């Protein structure tokens, strides 16, 4: 895929962790969301616990993920499945880590393997756990956001630290109906800032930026050439 097309896809259609699609947010205002409500919980769960552990670890190279802590999604939220030793935390995020206006917020097919380094884990893991618990308790999307904002304001959730980054290199992941497993990439989490300071979103720049007002940060994405298993990503996925 040519760089111009890739840029359009990233800036117009991809947010996960955390973001699954800024472009789709605009389209959601004029088209009915394909997933208007939460599906039955079983559709979000992975029945085989070992399979979810393996999928979570596929987010990063084995040299990193083998000693990482691993969380899996249970009926009452995320729980520790494997204790870690290197500060990294691997998890398979579900669709509700995106912004509430995304039409795929309730997409039960989403499986987003991600491995956070220690600074990123201290911010993102409690945030993901909190969002998940609120939604599984039956709160609406709006109520969830209100609760998260209150938690941020009261300092009940950790503050984003310098050096926060993660790996998303899994070729088995499914990030959205539009993008599938997309492309292997690194992400860096920065308090809300001007992306131009990184040279992001500029012609021929390999760095892309997305503002996430809901989680109060700017997300920088840097595509890389290989999946976590060492295989080369197809050129068209660029």
Describe this structure in words.
The structure is a single chain. With about 240 residues, the chain is of the alpha+beta class. It has one domain (about 5-230). It is about 25% helix and about 20% strand. It contains six helices and eight strands. It has helices at about 5-15, 20-30, 50-55, 60-65, 120-135, 140-155; strands at about 70-75, 75-80, 90-95, 110-115, 165-170, 185-190, 210, 215-225. The protein has an eight-stranded mixed β-sheet with strand order 2-1-3-4-5-6-8-7, sandwiched between helices. Helix 5 (about 120-135) packs across helix 6 (about 140-155). The termini are close together.
Write the layout of secondary structure elements.
Blueprint: H1 3-13, H2 22-28, H3 49-57, H4 62-65, E1 69-74, E2 77-82, E3 89-93, E4 112-116, H5 118-136, H6 141-153, E5 165-168, E6 185-191, E7 208-212, E8 217-223
Parallel strand pairs: 1-3
Antiparallel strand pairs: 1-2, 3-4, 4-5, 5-6, 6-8, 7-8
Tally the beta strands.
8
**Low-confidence residue ranges:** 1-30
In the sheet with the most strands, the strands line up as 2-1-3-4-5-6-8-7
Q: Find the structural class using helix and strand composition.
A: alpha+beta
Largest sheet: 8 strands, mixed
Count of the domains: 1
Mean pLDDT over the full residue set: 88
Shape: globular
So how many helices? 6
Strand content: 15-25%
- Sketch the topology as an H/E string, one letter per element: HHHHEEEEHHEEEE
Radius of gyration: 17 Å
N→C terminal distance:
5 Å
The helix content, as a percent range, equals: 25-40%
């Amino acid at each position: 895929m040519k760089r111009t097309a890739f840029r359009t896809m990233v800036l117009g259609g991809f947010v996960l962790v955390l973001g699954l699609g800024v472009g789709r947010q605009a389209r959601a205002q004029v088209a009915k969301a394909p997933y208007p409500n939460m599906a039955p919980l079983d559709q979000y769960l992975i029945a085989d616990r070992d399979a979810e552990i393996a999928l979570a670890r596929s987010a990063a190279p084995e040299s990193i993920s083998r000693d990482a802590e691993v969380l899996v999604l249970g009926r009452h939220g995320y729980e520790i499945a494997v204790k870690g030793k290197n500060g990294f935390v691997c998890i398979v995020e579900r669709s509700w880590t995106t912004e509430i206006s995304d039409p795929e917020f309730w997409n039960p097919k989403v499986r987003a393997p991600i491995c956070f380094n220690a600074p990123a884990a201290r911010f993102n893991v409690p945030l993901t756990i909190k969002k998940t618990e609120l939604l599984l308790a039956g709160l609406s999307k709006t109520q969830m956001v209100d609760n998260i904002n209150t938690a941020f304001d009261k300092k009940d959730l950790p503050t984003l630290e310098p050096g926060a980054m993660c790996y998303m290199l899994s070729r088995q992941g499914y990030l959205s109906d539009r993008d599938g497993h997309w492309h292997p990439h690194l992400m860096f989490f920065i308090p809300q800032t001007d992306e131009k300071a990184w040279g992001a979103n500029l012609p021929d720049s390999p760095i892309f930026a997305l503002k996430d007002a809901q989680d109060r940060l700017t997300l920088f994405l840097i595509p890389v050439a290989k999946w976590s298993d060492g295989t080369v990503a197809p050129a068209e996925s660029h």
